[in-house]
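Risk mitigation, structural track. In case the binding assays with uridine-5'-diphosphate fail to produce interpretable data, a predicted complex structure has been prepared as a fallback.
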Amino acid sequence: MKIALIAGTRPEIVKLAPVRDAMNALPDLQSWWLATGQHGSLAEQAMGVFDIVPDRQLSLNWTKSSLPSLFARLIEGLAEEYERSGPDMVIVQGDTASAYAGATAAHMLRIPVAHVEAGLRSGDLANPFPEEGFRRMIAPITDLHFAPTRAARDNLRAENIDDDKILVTGNTVVDAVEALGDNDVRPAALDDVAPGANIVLVTAHRRENWGEGIDSICEAVLDLRGRFSNTHFILPAHANPRVRDAVNQLLAGEPQISVVDPLSYPEFIGVLKRSSLVLSDSGGVQEEAPSFGVPVLVLRERTERMEAVKAGTALLVGTDRARIVTEASRLLADPRARLKMTKRGNPFGDGNAGIRIVAACRDFLQSSGPAAPKGGLLSRLGLGTTSIAMAE
Ligand code: UDP
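Fallback model:
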């Protein structure tokens, strides 16, 4: 049984790597990795970390095309690859153009679709844009929905997705973090940090924050630097030139602030686990930080990952400069306030999501039925969903 994994962006690669590893452990499944090239060198770096050599790589010009024309060529390229290699199933992850095109092309060719990280919803088509639309449109053409949490499952139920097609698996990003295990990487980015200084990790890249939002986040970092002399701010700049240029213009070369090139995944986790606080608009970072007990201030007006906010490990602050400074100052000044935001365990998963997903895909292909069998390999592995200690 041949299963295609479609990935274009760094987070898709991080989150599908555990699925591929689980698949490769089963002799009757063959993984077939198709890289769409959406994140260019960032994606290549991430694939290198997980020893992924794509079976096929699309060559589209992602930077110079409008989203609609890119999407049209993406569908065409993916469909050609599917027809050539004939996968029995296609797995897409998340909410990118690659994921939506990957699912759509498969649906048109009547190839079953499985969706990893299904059911995330902000309820606002403009936020995050275009991702909220993409993930909503993937749902009706999906045969197996792998919801990372029960809240995600409930979102799918509310859209009348058949319960038999949904499996709560945990988020595969927790598997990815755990797979790094004791492989602790101390990135060069830490060399500029004074001994004993607190570290604040800052990431911002979302399209809704381009322009005013990114500027306001950078200004908040400058304010905080002025208030906390024993704190160092590390900003891995996103590869997107609009984001990188804005961040460099406002912050590069400033004392106590390091604007660095995108970090490899183990390097990024190496900084994250040493941080006292994270300021981020990233989805993946919100899910990873709880594994290390690091509080997150979410630089977005709303998040589809309310599990961390409900568990008290993340706080939604948006991009207002004063609000960021107030909340970050409160946490940086008071270690007990930070401690209150750390909890044991990660509300997003237990590190076994990849195995659950692959077992369910295998059972589905063996039964060729319309519903996701919840028995079969999954229960033989003792990996029902009830063992996941995840927030409602
Ligand atoms: N990440 C990384 N290096 C960096 C910044 C982020 O490896 O310099 C990882 C991070 O750990 C997370 C993923 O990239 O797993 C998040 O990607 P991004 O913020 O681009 O996208 P999002 O999660 O918002 O979709």
